[in-house]
Amino acid sequence: MDSRFRGNDGPVYESASRRFRELVWEAGSPVANMLYVAGMANASAMMDDAHILVVDDDSRLRSLLSRFLGENGFRVTAAENAAEARDRLRFMHPDLLVLDVMMPGESGLTLTESLRRERAALPVLLLTARGAPEDRIAGFEAGADDYLQKPFEPRELVLRIRAMLRRVPPAAVPAPAGPTQLGAASFDAERGELRTAEGVVHLTGGEAALLSALARRPNEVLSREGLAELLGMDEAGERAIDVQVTRLRRKIEADPREPRFLHTVRGRGYVLKPGS
């Protein structure tokens, strides 16, 4: 049985018994939309919660890759094209990018070239159906760190990702130059510590993570969806973000009903506006 992942122009298969079960993509078949990804053992022995951004216009392959990488211990965010990837990258700092070359609109090569100017340290693994030497050379010249031809064995993708992550330090979200001033309080994004004249204000892990994310992007509107994905929350994450915001306002605002620092931008999300 062929256990390799293919792209838009071919069937996608999952090998049996702890790896994959066969996925049949057959026109008119009642099983055409069924997807099963077997759980992998020893997820704790894999890379520690590395965040992978998967960009591919093939929804089937994108979904399969996201679920497979998730089963292998990675935190995964997906985008269907370069424009959506750029939007995600405005507020998140993944550890590695898995990027399809041939996409409608901006190609993976063009996006890679752009990222090399903006985020030189971000590892990029290109996926493509083209495997000629000149195609691989073009990928590396664009700035890719690795290149994998479709169809590919999913285990090889995981091994390549792990090898790339071993060669680079985890992505670091830029921290403010100093504490973020919120009136009489100050927040240290590096430590996740909120202080007032009376001492340290207790923050839960979720509150500290959310405030840190906002403090690293001051005066920038971050969507609820984006914040949820950035913090690795599940499908209920957007509602959880709302709850955390309400709790944070009680701790940093003199009047939580009339916030000075943590604002809601209707229809868009939240923004932190530091000030004395």
Low-confidence stretches: 9-48
CATH superfamily of the largest domain: Response regulator
Q: How big is the Rg? A: 21 Å
> Whole-Å distance between the termini?
65 Å
Instruction: State the major sheet.
Output: 5 strands, parallel
Number of helices, counting only DSSP H or I runs of 4 residues or more: 8
H/E element order: EHEHEHEHEHEEEEHHHEE
CATH class of the largest domain: Alpha Beta
Second rung of CATH, namely the architecture of the largest domain: 3-Layer(aba) Sandwich
Average predicted local confidence, pLDDT: 78
Q: What share of the residues does DSSP label as strand, in percent?
A: 15-25%
Question: What is the helix fraction of residues, given as a range?
Answer: 25-40%
Question: What global shape is seen?
Answer: elongated
The class by helix and strand makeup works out as alpha/beta
How many structural domains in the coordinates?
Answer: 2
Q: State the CATH topology of the largest domain.
A: Rossmann fold
Q: What's the gist of this structure?
A:
This protein is 33% helix and 17% strand. It has 276 residues and is α/β, with parallel strands linked by helices.
Structure report:
With 276 residues, the chain is of the alpha/beta class. It has 2 domains: 43-167, Response regulator (Rossmann fold); 180-272, Orthogonal Bundle (Arc Repressor Mutant, subunit A), CATH 1.10.10. The chain is 33% helix and 17% strand. The protein has helices at 59-71, 82-89, 108-118, 133-142, 154-167, 205-215, 224-230, 237-252, and strands spanning 51-55, 75-79, 96-100, 124-128, 146-149, 180-182, 185-188, 193-196, 199-201, 262-265, 269-272. The strands form 3 sheets. A 5-stranded parallel sheet has the order 2-1-3-4-5, sandwiched between helices. Strands 6-7-8-9 form a 4-stranded antiparallel sheet, covered by helices on one side. Strands 10-11 form a two-stranded antiparallel ribbon. Helix 6 packs across helix 8 (237-252). Residues 9-48 have low confidence and may be disordered.
